Amino acid sequence: MSPTLPPPGRTVLLREGLPRGSRIEQAINRLRLVFVQLPGVQLSVGDAARLTELDQFLSQILLNALEDLRIVRRLDNGLYERLTD
Hints:
With about 80 residues, the chain is mainly α. The protein has three helices and three strands; from the N terminus they run αβααββ.
């Protein structure tokens, strides 16, 4: 079975490519948990930056990765919410 490729111009952060315990790994796990544990929560890039203590550029990359992994979806208003089955 071949892996699903991200849309052109997008980068997916894979767990295997991150050093264990890295700030990026911690940040993406924190965001994922927020979406899973708080049903209906919607986050902006700024919200994600505050939660992860990373800048908005890196936070946008993490949200894009979660979107590529089909954990969240971006709404028309620019907010992100958990993608439900």
